[in-house]
Amino acid sequence: MNIKYVFKYFIAVLIIVLSVVGKSYASGFPTRPGRLIVSPSVSYFFANKEWDSTGVKKSFANDGKFTSVSFNLYAEYGISRRFSAVFLLPYIMNTYAQTGYPKSSVSGLTDMETGIKYYLANINYVDYFSLQATAITPLYNNPNLGYNEEGGELKLSFAGSGAIGSKNFFFNFDEAGRYYFGPGGPFQDRYAGTFGLTLDNNFKNQLSLTASGIYTTSNNKQNFNLLNPYVNKNFSFTQVSLSYGHTFSKRFTVFLTGGQFVIGRNTGAGTSGTVALIYRIGN
Amino acid sequence: MKIMIQHKRILIPGFIMPAICLLFVLLSAGNAFAANDADISFTTTPTIKSALFKGGSRITYNVDINNPLDTVEAGKITYRVTTERGKFLDEDSVKISVGSKSTKHLEISMPPQETGFFKLMVIINVTDYDDTTLLAFGVDPEKIHSQYAKPADFDQFWANTKAELAKVAPDFKLTYLPDSSRENRKAYLFEFKSLDNLTVRGYMTVPINPNPHHKFAVIFQVPPYQVPLLPMFGSDPDVAIVSVNVRGQGNSRDVIHTTHDDYIFYHIEDRNKYVMRGAIMDCLRTVDFIFTQPELDHSKIMVVGGSMGGFLAIATASLDKRIKICSSQNPILSDVRNMHGEAEWPLNVITRYVATKPGVTLEKVLNNLDYYDTKNFAENVDCTTLIGIGLLDNLVPPNHAYVVYNNLHGDKHMISFPNLGHEVGMPYKVYESRWMHDTFALF
Hints:
The complex is a heterodimer. Chain A is mainly beta.
């Protein structure tokens, strides 16, 4: 497999990483003013299969194996009751190995995200709506690390909690539209839904299931391979992930997440694992 | 014949609500066992959960009868609608027959009523069972207003009173109470001088936080009628609780120490000496105290109280704009001039008192009470306010509470409990907590 062709999966991998980071912290809830939430995380992704442009799943050629390790720093700061600032800095290391070819690797900072989240409304102070506007800034020149284009995203989130019998539950839904300001975009529809249960009355342990994915479209479908053969602007996938969270203290929580791609088009079919730490600093 | 009034009305201090709820759960469990002893039972529920209907629409209730007996039970269901004062409005009956070991469902549909609140009796008379349920419903309650206006000099009266308070040096004292403190909170006794130079005391509990600069939002608890407040604790690490025993209550009975019943009319014949004048100023001085405490967030104060505390909460929020939010449950002294025939207390004891005081008339007392009517304080409340009521409240009938609610000009929210008397249910306290945390951005 041509290494240029392989790098089309990088975008999807980056997206997986970012979506996992977001899920560890229900984005629909407002953030307390003066509180800084810092979440460093490390993710591992492995794929030896792909879905082609028609959604047919098949193995990589030449026993190819694609791995990605990413380090991410996510932060959110409560500015006021309504507003909070959001920041994400990802660093990624991708490797593709296939029989008969030399191993190929690429690494570096990718797309930085800086955003403002606005607490829109609530339902009886239990369920919360928020709107987030995010700027995407590429921190690289290497086209193998992403679209290398500025972008913008608007995300609507809905989060809430309740009880089923003796168990407390929580949920979070995100629906976002992201557009990259380059030739052919692309435009991405990003979605995620999480449902979780607390496993004890002290809210120390929680288990959650998330379905998330991306549907990417470009208005430059015919030419995108010619203009930019390294980046895939037409793909989609949905992954399902299971996450366990343990709260050690009011200030510190750890999330362990495992994910599996369940459906896709024009992207790798892989498995992911993430360890995310969440620190709450300040108020 | 067995006549049961299912919904009794009792005066319950807010702080014993958890105990009442526990008792209710236990009693409910007991009733469940009783039901298994093959008794006929019936329930009556409004088709609109809140029992607040729109004007022009029919008033509808669901009636469900359970007959566990081996006999067919035949008879009738009767409904009777009266005003809050008991004036008869409407009555009708329907014949019913409930088969052995079966249930029967029917809907009562009553003619529309004018704006206001009404009492509804649903009576079942069948072969082996007679029972009566007392209920209440409202029609367009947001249109209820009092025909009695606020005195023209109401605001001036209270401005003068506040000016009088300002002349009293507070002489705040704070005493750490190590024996009353708990693992997560420090407890303090505070005292100060208030109107007429009386000493007033209260308690403050503050969460223990490793950050010495952390500032805590404040729940300012004002007291129910003649219920001594003690240091109040909780598990909320973000909130300090300040509770005051106004003059004549709890540990502030140095000068005023009436009997339980006499407190409400203490010096009522003189509006400048009425006990509530000082009690309200005691609340305002407590806010002054809060502002002397550096660990308290002075921009996040919720005043909260039930019954007399509900009255004091609204009065405090009305007269002191430093209050950020106000939670008032079953506030007494609401629309006082309309109480006759609708509320049992306190007009009954005030009337008896007036009869013992030569030269004092009820009209004069009512004139004085105009300056203490919760509805008149409500007009000046700017902060966000939450009000809770029971539609079967015999001390604060719902039409009185709605006069107060409708006089509020700021953001407001009403939670009513169709089957409760002078109390609110646990959902109110849950909502109140979430509302406070959201308003104070304690996410």
